[in-house]
Amino acid sequence: MITKLIRLLTNPFRRSIRNKLIFTMIFLSVVPIIAVTALAAENNRKSMETEVITTNLSNMKWTGVYLGDQFAQLNNLIYTVMISPHLSEYLASTEGSSLYNPYTAQKNIMDTLNNLFYSAGNHVIGTGLYLKEPAKLFNISANQNDLKSTSVVPSPYNILFEENKDFIILSTSGDDGQFQLVRSINRFENRDKLGGISLNIRWSMLDQTLALIGRGEAHKVLIAGDEGNVLYQPLGEKPSDEIMSRVNQVTDDHGYFKMPKEYVFYNTIDPVGLKLVTIIPTSFINKSAQSTMQFGIIVGLISIVVSIAIAILLAWRTATPIVTLARSMQGLGIIKETELPQSNRVDEIGLLETKLYNMSYRIKEHIKTEYSINLDKKTAELKALQAQINPHFLQNTLQMIGSMLFTKKPAESYEIIRSLSDMFRYVIRDPNDLASLKAELEHLNNYMLIQQQRFSTRLNYTTDIDERALACLIPKLTLQPIVENAFFHGLENKSGKWELSVSVAHIRDAVHIRIQDNGIGIEDKKLVDLQRRLNYQSGQVWTRGNRIGIQNVASRIVMHFGTAYGITVESKHGEGTIVTVIIPEEARGELID
């Protein structure tokens, strides 16, 4: 079922180049628009994210300063009681170090607390004082004004003493809208805790300050305690335990961290050590990107419609000549068809491919036939030329052998005769045009043995062979004609010692055979012409003359191995010549059509 559906959807595009062009042009038009829109939205989101982070970090800093000032004012209210002379007199009277009437001292303490309560403002809804000795608890509020003795330390003073803190801030039990600020009264000499002073305060006194960073219900603003618990949150749902755990774990005084769905900003409120926390959902930052995306979609839809119209027009005009040519090709069947692999395409281009393949196949067969005839002719001429030994070289060798019969030992004469015989056997017996590099080097060594015998006092011949390359294939009579040219054109016209060396080495995936002499070299003009002819080999075999020249050798290498291989020549006039033969390292060598 799925296969049929896919065929139904793709069939119009498989059978018509026009439909393919339309689809391609629409695709090329739509994809950049979508990419640019998405990129713009992402850049806008990142910019918005940076702005939100920077703004909130700054707002958190200044809001923390304002909250710190408010808590400092509350501390100042407590300090007015702590530095009151009435409190000092009362403590002295309870310890028996003063003759001051304790009842008068208690009344003075009550007056001090009342003054504090009524001068603190509407946000302070109660104040209290507890003294360990003589275990007295003073409570002042709008509905309460009393003094009582207690045998146990009342809450929240017991928490203050147990945790040995100078102050604590606690949410009032049963009322989330209030908190208690409790500060200890310490003995000056040894810091022993004598009691404590508390203020009951409405959290709402901080709302105006918290509004500096709150932006409605989307933002959560809260004050957390030193244990990561939420002390006060004006609006919204309480944050998750995971967020509050992260807030409790941070060690910096201020900063932010990112959760999967929120950005959490925090700042420590001095001097009370509470943490101001703001939680902003990521959706707030993404709103701007969404608006950009919506605008991009509108522009993209308009662009798509325009692109479709342009694509249809251009595809129609572009494909019409191809369709006409394809229809014309349908009548092309003059030559008898041969069995050929069918094209995978079924549109007009597929038809063109099949017809043009048939035509190219026939043309190729025709060229191959003509080439084979010409190649057979040239190969026959080449083999006839290979079967020849340079008459001048043969005459000199025979004369040298005749001379050696009278002056040398029979073994030395036999060695020269054997080398000459092996040379004849190499060029005549084996009908193949390719030989191993080992066999070619042996043929060259036979030639050089004769030459060393002729020029023993002048010629120094050295070799450096990488034996791993000996199995490579090389056209027969490649190296000996090059060395013969070195004697004929370079060394015979040079006075003094003759130096000739042959080296074989692997370089990358090829074998380089380097033949170097210290002859008279090649003139610059002739060298440029020779290099040009060697660089533009076509694989054609040249057989003019009675010698196998260097261009002939290069042509045969190209014919067998391709244009990546051949011969290079370097020379300096008066200093010598280097001829490098390059063949593949693999033992291959089929003819290249």
List keywords for this structure.
20% strand; 6-stranded antiparallel β-sheet; alpha+beta; 2 domains; disordered C terminus; 5-stranded antiparallel β-sheet; 593 residues; Heat Shock Protein 90
Overview of the structural elements:
The chain is α+β, with helices and mostly antiparallel strands and 593 residues long. The protein folds into two domains: 316 residues, no CATH class; 198 residues, Histidine kinase-like ATPase, C-terminal domain (Heat Shock Protein 90), CATH 3.30.565.10. It has 15 helices and 18 strands. The strands form four sheets. Strands 3-2-1-6-5-4 form a six-stranded antiparallel beta sheet. It has a five-stranded antiparallel beta sheet with strand order 8-7-11-10-9, with helices on both faces. Strands 13-15-16-18-17 form a five-stranded mixed beta sheet. Strand 15 and strand 16 form a beta hairpin. Helix 2 runs antiparallel to helix 8, helix 3 runs antiparallel to helix 4 and helix 10 packs antiparallel against helix 11. The longest helix is centred in the N-terminal third of the chain and has 66 residues. The radius of gyration is 53 Å and the shape is elongated. The C terminus is likely disordered.
